[in-house]
Amino acid sequence: MVLPSLLVTLLAGSGSAAAAVARPVTPRTSNGTCTTLLQRRAWHTFTDAEKRAYIDAELCLMAKPATLGLNGTKNRFEELQWTHQHQASIVHNVGAFLPYHRLLMWAHEKLLREECGYQGAQPYWDEVRDAGKFSTSDVLDPVTGFGGNGVGAYGCIADGPFVNFTNSLGPGYRIGFEHCIYRFVSDSVSRRAAQSYIDECYQHTTFVDFWPCAEGAPHNGGHGGIGGKMNDPIASPGDPIFYLHHSFLDKVWWDWQELNQSARLMDIGGRNKFSGGFSGGFPWGNGTLPGFPGGNGSLPGAPQDPWRSVPLQDMIPPPGSPEPEGDPGNTTTLSHILRMYGVVPDVTIADVMDTRGPLLCFEYV
Ligand SMILES: [Cu+2]
Questions:
Q1: How many whole angstroms separate alpha carbon 196 and alpha carbon 234?
Q2: What's the 114 CA to ligand 1 centre distance in angstroms?
Q3: Average pLDDT of span 113-121
Q4: How many helices (H) and strands (E) would you count in the chain?
Q5: Are 256 and 201 a contacting pair, CB within 8 Å?
Q6: Which one of 172, 198, 250, 286 has the lowest number of neighbouring Cβ atoms within 10 Å?
């Protein structure tokens, strides 16, 4: 019978509107349970020991050999990155942008916990706090953070826990080209992380209007403000800061959902494919690497990114262009399938709409 489960969904949607504190949660469906919500906190609230534990787990993931046979991957960390690189054309500029990245953050958190002994939750970077001054953020601390800005023409990071990490995916779609984590931190670009841009997005009352706004300044400010690897829309999950950044953006989305839960908990839409971007040839093609709009290199006076000159022909496009699945037509629906290529099981957008649902089971505090 369809009716009872529909009823449960509706009741759960409206009934949880006022909830905000840690509490046991009644499962919304029968195929999973969520009894204790993991609490995701901002990085700057972490103790040094908590920061250490998170970074150690990340290093563990980077050291664990790849297991899934995904083209070009060497370790578990890169397997997560691969799902993003491979699907870049269908998880950006589309309705699935926020849902896919929510699932990717959760998959990352799950791997840290289940395979690397991490006990905590995925942290997020409170970027509003550091807007306009990313260079002094504690996220970039060389001892307790992710290391600082890059140095030299190629911007390879020179300190911090990830200084020796070699990434095999990227720039762009390229695989098998081993390179450092590189950054071109720009305080001026990081102003796009300011609260005013988020407030602008919160003016929108429907998902179809909200997501392009969120994918604009709040999203691009973090990518462009760090620059380098982070400014590569295809391979950016090669810088571990990516996971703090996108968890922040996920919180921005969740906070918007919570502002009107009964209307927004299951609100989805937007196009499935974006013809002007990744799929039909790059607007930034002709031998230059992609950058987020407004990122480093595209602003007057911003440092030029020499990685952009890596010839396009050296970038290997994903074998077979992935196509959206689960919702025929060009409108993103709750049935849209989010593919994870074995890193975690594939799910639908419906499964990731509620962070407190049986699959995700976390909350932002
Ligand atoms: Cu992305």
A1: 27
A2: 24
A3: 98
A4: 11, 8
A5: yes
A6: 286
Q: What is the pLDDT of residue 173?
A: 81
Å from CA of 193 to ligand 1 middle: 16
36 C-alpha vs ligand 1 centroid, how far in Å? Answer: 29
Å from CA of 89 to ligand 1 middle = 10
Segment holding 256, helix H or strand E: helix 241-259
Look at 190 and 108; give whichever has higher pLDDT: 108
Averaged pLDDT score across all residues of the chain: 83
Specify the pairing of strand 38-40 against strand 362-364.
parallel
Q: SS3 of 128, please?
A: helix
Report d(CA 308, CA 233) in Å as an integer. Answer: 12
The two beta strands, 337-338 and 362-364, are unpaired
Q: Which of 363, 355, 364, 299 is nearest to 28 (CA)?
A: 355
Residues whose CB is less than 8 angstroms from the CB of residue 110 and which lie 6 or more positions away in sequence, other chains included: 344
Two tokens, residue 208 = 């179809």
Question: What percentage of the chain exceeds 70 in pLDDT?
Answer: 79
| Cα maximum dimension of the chain | 64
Ligand 1 centroid – CA 10 distance (Å): 31
Residue 40: pLDDT above 50?
Answer: yes
**Hunting for tokens 């990518």 — which residue is that?**
223
pLDDT of 78 > 70? The answer is: yes
Q: What is the distance between the alpha carbons of residues 309 and 305, in angstroms, rounded to a whole number?
A: 8
The one-letter code for the residue type at 78 is: E
Q: Write down the pLDDT at residue 197.
A: 96
Output the CA 184–ligand 1 centroid distance in Å. Answer: 18
Distance 263 CA to ligand 1 centre (A): 26
Return the structure tokens found at 244: 């703090």
Integer angstrom CA distances of residue 71 from 60, 288, 318, 338: 21, 23, 9, 19
Res 5: pLDDT: 37
pLDDT tens, position by position, 187-221: 988 999 999 999 999 999 999 999 999 998 899 88
CB-CB contact of 108 with 101 (8 Å): no
Question: How do residues 237-285 score in pLDDT, each as one tens digit?
Answer: 999 999 999 999 999 999 999 999 999 999 999 999 876 544 322 233 3
